[in-house]
Backbone:
């Protein structure tokens, strides 16, 4: 009987010959990740347990990115706790402000996560790394503490839903639209406890940036992980970044899937997720006239260089509409610098955008762009829950970077075709 | 473990931003988190919830973020137990790890309304709605998870396994 890529990665890490969906395994992890919101609880648990050293200082990774640069005194105290722990444990991978980025953009960029890895992270968007052909999933702070001590975690082997995307991408349609469309189809619990394996000739041609966006939002369908079998595009991405060996896993032709869902994406236009769930998806032509107050382009979902290039392409020679704010957040320092070298920052500044240092900031209503009562925002982020970006009576519309940029110019939700 | 209390009823897809908005995540102090529990879903919840009350919710309770602050806030608010038609995966895991009692029982959620007087028996996997005079059976926890709970949550289990001497996690 054939196996999926997920079952193979889990079996190898658990030291089993093979594993079955539903089976509970105790497995070693290659990386245990935390940030400035989740790691403080884990560090306290670690200390309460009386543990002196993390299991491997190369494999416990801390990235302060949510409320950094520190937005207030309690946030500063949380970031300080991470910094002191990283120093005391001599962690190889601790990224200070000025060096850091949004964790799920930073780790692949630096070649820290590689194909075939098993990654757990105390952040729900840890599922992003599935784009590299790794198994990665979000866990809580106590799980992180346990993994920091033991180098192990427990997992229920998930069933896998296979998604097959065929056809030709229409203009302005990209990875973000594919995943929004998928969540719109199966719902926010459509893949609960399951792995979403993204396949098909559209995925075969999709660049890494789009693949990261898709795997990133598997959690918004309730998924345990999203994954894409590695290929030439994956290898090109990791080849010059990897500083250790990695292993490519593939799904067998006769692997068992709990469901196979096929989409002809030739019919798909850019997608907008309406408040207050990522499943409330409509095509851009069906949105109607929705005036907006703010646009955010960035986040672990869409803060990569390709995303900023798309936004710049739309914004070139244009201005943000009066009384509308555009906030652009490069995902990492490298992306920031590269955007500068490519002249993207000039385009953004000329368009009257504000450019921020890398941070999760406004995505979760933390800082750097919180919404007032009644305000509406278009964001390239991943969640549009009630109050996600600020006041409980504010609204968030999720979209791809081209749509977000065009909306900033129009002052309402719209397409670059209207400019 | 048995709990008896008044029901707070919520709908489907109650997300972690509804349970504890991110604007309050600059602390992990349970008392502070409890003061803002359910703020985005029911602003009067935190003020009116009583020790021992029970949350009933429809599908996908706790979807969204991995923040453990969500089960911490619920537990610290005085809620004794959460019964849902289904739970989002990370929330389920976090609750188990930190010993917030939870139970999946769609049938009980269907019938039960806000303000009902309900009794939950975790060991027996039984829910009695005293207001409506109905009894429901839920699936017991899988054996591995029972072992976690018996060890005092995940940290207790890991400490036993790793031979660590630190204080046990308070229940």
Residues:
């Amino acid at each position: 009987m054939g196996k999926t890529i997920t079952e193979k990665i889990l079996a190898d890490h658990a030291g089993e010959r093979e594993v079955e969906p539903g089976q509970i395994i105790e497995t070693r992890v290659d990386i245990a990740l935390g940030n400035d919101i989740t790691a403080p609880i884990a560090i306290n648990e670690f200390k309460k347990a009386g543990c002196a050293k993390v299991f491997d200082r190369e494999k416990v990774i801390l990235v302060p990115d949510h409320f950094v640069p520190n937005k207030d005194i309690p946030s500063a105290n949380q970031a300080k706790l991470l910094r002191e722990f990283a120093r005391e444990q001599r962690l190889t991978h601790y990224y200070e402000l000025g060096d850091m980025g949004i964790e799920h953009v930073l780790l692949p960029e630096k070649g820290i996560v590689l194909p075939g890895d098993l990654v757990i992270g105390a952040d729900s968007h840890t599922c992003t790394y599935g784009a590299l052909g790794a198994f990665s999933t979000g866990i809580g702070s106590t799980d992180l503490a346990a993994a920091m001590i033991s180098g192990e975690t427990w997992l229920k082997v998930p069933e896998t839903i296979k998604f097959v995307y065929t056809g030709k991408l229409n203009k302005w349609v990209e990875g973000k639209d594919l995943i929004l469309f998928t969540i719109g189809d199966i719902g926010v619990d459509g893949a609960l406890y399951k792995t979403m394996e993204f396949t098909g000739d559209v995925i075969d041609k999709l660049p890494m940036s789009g693949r990261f966006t898709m795997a990133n939002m598997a959690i918004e369908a309730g998924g345990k992980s999203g994954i894409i079998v590695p290929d030439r595009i994956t290898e090109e991405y990791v080849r010059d970044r990897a500083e250790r060996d990695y292993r490519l896993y593939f799904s067998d032709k006769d692997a068992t899937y709990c469901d196979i869902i096929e989409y002809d994406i030739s019919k798909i236009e850019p997608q907008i997720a309406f408040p207050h769930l990522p499943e409330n998806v409509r095509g851009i032509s069906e949105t109607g006239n929705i005036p907006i107050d703010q646009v955010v382009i960035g986040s672990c979902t869409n803060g990569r260089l390709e995303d900023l290039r798309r936004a710049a392409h739309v914004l070139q020679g244009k201005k943000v509409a009066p009384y509308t704010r555009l906030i652009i957040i490069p995902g990492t320092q490298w992306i920031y610098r590269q955007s500068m070298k490519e002249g993207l920052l000039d385009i953004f500044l000329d368009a009257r955008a504000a450019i921020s240092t890398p941070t999760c900031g406004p995505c979760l209503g933390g800082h750097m762009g919180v919404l007032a009562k009644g305000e509406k925002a278009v964001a390239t982020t991943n969640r549009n829950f009630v109050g996600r970006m600020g006041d409980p009576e504010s609204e968030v519309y999720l979209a791809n970077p081209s749509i977000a940029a065009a909306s900033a110019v129009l002052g309402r939700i719209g397409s670059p075709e209207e400019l | 473990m048995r709990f008896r209390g008044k029901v707070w009823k919520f709908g489907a897809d109650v997300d972690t931003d509804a349970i504890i908005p991110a604007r309050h995540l600059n602390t992990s102090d349970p008392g502070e988190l409890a003061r803002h529990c359910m703020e985005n879903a029911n602003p009067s919840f935190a003020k009116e919830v009583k020790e021992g009350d029970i949350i009933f919710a429809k599908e996908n309770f706790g979807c969204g973020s991995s923040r453990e602050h969500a089960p911490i806030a619920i537990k610290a608010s005085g809620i004794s137990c959460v019964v849902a038609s289904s739970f989002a995966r990370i929330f389920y895991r976090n609750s188990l790890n930190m010993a917030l009692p939870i139970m999946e029982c769609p049938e009980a959620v269907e019938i039960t309304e806000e303000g009902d007087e309900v009794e939950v028996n975790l060991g027996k996997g039984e829910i009695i709605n005293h207001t409506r005079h109905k009894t429901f059976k839920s699936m017991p926890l899988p054996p591995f998870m029972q072992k976690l709970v018996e060890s005092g949550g995940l940290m207790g289990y890991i400490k036993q396994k790793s031979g660590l001497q630190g204080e046990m996690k308070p229940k």
In short: Chain A is about 30% helix and 15% strand. The mean pLDDT of chain A is 98.
